Input
Amino acid sequence: MRTIALALFLAAPAVFAEESQLTDHPLQDVKAALQIPAGWESTKEAEDGVYVYQFGKGKGPGSTSVTLSVTTGVPDRTGQPPSEYAAALIDMSQDEGSESTVQKGEFQGMKSLRVEYDFDCETGRMHAVNVAIANDKTGTLYFFAWQTPLDESVEMEAIREKILTSARFDPAF
Output
């Protein structure tokens, strides 16, 4: 029994080390790039100027994942500049969780909004972080949606922040 416990204890740092090794992931359709942990699965969907990139550790509800949605032509689609549309999306995302403070900032010269909250899903409590980055000059909105099981949220925080800060966007897109 001790051998099994010791093996699990020694394997945990190796799993975390693998996840903390980020690899470049170019997103050529949207002239962007970000870094994703080695071994995470990815999917891409695109339709009519909306691109959705999903990256995850495991599949299905209750798994850790980050989604980047890139919407072009936001003013034509919504009648709003991306920064106003971003605020509306952040407000809507809070409907799933309790009210939390929206953090305003800037990311690569673009306005950004961030909100964190917890919510229930079919597999248990989850922690979510949504970040909206608005390029009002080009009409493009970048929207990150992160989720992880609540009991893993602290250990996954560093990986989440590495992914978010690794993002590189072409300011002309």
The chain has a mean pLDDT of 88. The longest strand covers residues 110-121. The CA atoms of residues 126 and 149 lie 4 Å apart.
